[in-house]
Design a protein that fits this description.
Length: 416
């Protein structure tokens, strides 16, 4: 384990304050799942009193990396970062599970294979095979909660977004030029988010380019496979290191924070050179473009879910809310309780720990429904998928939208 995070182990006073903020402890009351418990185990691992075993693998995989413990620790213990480094040590000691190894080493690093996977999922849904398997209950014969996990799959697009739009979305006499990192979900699933961003940028005289890009690498980094994550990060930096762009914008909170963490995750000074250009699209619309809208009156109530990663970036809490306020009276913003509580998605956590993730999500659904909103907006495609699934499980008619989709609804006339 890296010495930088050994120091954090010594900072922990075992006060247990992290318990009050950990979504998993709230659902399980298990000390080993909270930061204090993991710190104790890490100290014993460091001293050699214990060694990696199957029980420790389960404990350290059962963490959302939501950062709630870190944010609220009075001693500044960065527990989420310690867990990631612990997973790195775990991979070095025991290797990756066979499924993750194949996904990271033979799929994630290759865009062609990712696109082919997306096409297969599209055909699975469009040919009726998905409907047949669900109705026949054959999926129930699969191990664990596979039948329930399969319902997490949203409607997949017919092809990658990158292939359907030009590399350059030219604007005559553009005021700014940005590079757009779409992330995997917008690229393969939710094209409407991508199209919404292109429409907004065109309306405000911003030229957009979409360079060749790979997964940001967070699935690998979060699983302890820093080698694969570094390969993906290096590919992205190479493609986006362009002097002709003013900003690099993101529609995904997790992709943004992964890029912001590239210098540390990859141990690369080169990765830090782009930090000043990286910006969440919502903050870009508010602070850089300072968009002013005159939306028609619809009076749709909308609430907002804070993605765990975005809220800890600069103005990550305030910019989305300011943007929502500018959509009035078309959208009436109402704050919900537990707005900043993790939804339980955490990348692939809702797959590897389906039942526990849905318990966490159920708390969020209660808050959404209590707000009386017709729409819940967010700025993370992964969170959106989780929320949509959890709301569907509760037979709720609340819809889930990315903030930029709401902005497009309010575009009227010329904004240049």
């Amino acid at each position: 384990m890296e010495n930088k995070y050994f120091k954090d182990l010594n900072k922990c006073s075992r006060c247990g304050g992290c318990q009050a903020h950990c979504p998993l402890f709230y659902e399980t009351s298990m000390e080993s799942y909270v930061a204090r418990g993991k710190v104790e185990l890490l100290e014993n691992l460091r001293s050699g009193k214990i060694i990696w075993n199957d029980r420790l693998v389960d404990i350290f995989s059962t963490c959302l990396l939501c950062g709630a413990c870190t944010e609220n620790c009075p001693n500044g213990v960065q527990a989420d970062k310690m867990v990631m480094r612990a997973r790195k040590e775990l991979v070095a000691d025991r290797g990756l599970p066979i499924i993750k190894k194949n996904i990271f080493h033979h799929l994630l690093k290759y865009n062609g294979r990712l696109n082919a996977m997306g096409k297969c999922l599209y055909l699975y849904q469009q040919t009726g095979l998905q409907t047949f398997l669900r109705s026949s209950r054959l999926l129930n014969l699969m191990p664990m909660d596979f039948a329930k996990i399969e319902t997490l799959l949203p409607t997949v697009a017919s092809g990658p977004f990158h292939k359907k739009v030009p590399f350059r979305n030219a604007v005559e006499k553009h005021r700014l030029k940005v590079a757009y990192f779409t992330g995997c979900i917008t690229n393969l699933i939710n094209h409407n988010v991508g199209y919404s961003i292109l429409k907004i940028m065109k309306a405000y005289g911003v030229e957009v380019i979409i360079p060749e890009q790979s997964c940001c690498g967070i699935p690998a980094f979060a699983s302890g496979d820093f080698a694969t994550g570094k390969i993906l990060g290096e590919k992205n930096i190479k493609e986006f290191n362009r002097e002709d762009v003013d900003y690099i914008i993101f529609d995904c909170a997790t992709c943004l924070t992964t890029w912001l963490d590239y210098p540390e995750l990859m141990e690369s000074e080169e990765a830090g050179k782009l930090a000043g250009k990286l910006m969440d699209v919502n903050r870009f619309l508010v602070e850089v473009l300072d968009i002013k809208l005159a939306p028609r009156e619809m009076g749709v109530k909308v609430t907002y879910h804070d993605p765990c990663h975005l809220k800890r970036t600069k103005n990550g809490r305030t910019a989305p809310r300011e943007l929502l306020k500018r959509l009035s009276p078309a959208y009436e913003f109402v704050e919900m309780g537990l707005a900043d509580r993790c939804c339980g998605s955490a990348g692939s956590f809702n797959i590897s720990h389906y039942r526990l993730s849905q318990k966490v999500a159920a708390r969020k659904v209660e808050s959404i429904q209590a707000s009386g909103a017709n729409v819940v907006a967010s700025a993370c495609p992964s969170c959106m998928m989780q929320l949509a699934h959890a709301l569907k499980n509760e037979t709720s008619d609340v819809t889930v939208k990315h903030l930029v989709e709401l902005v497009v609804d309010c575009l009227t006339g010329s904004h240049t």
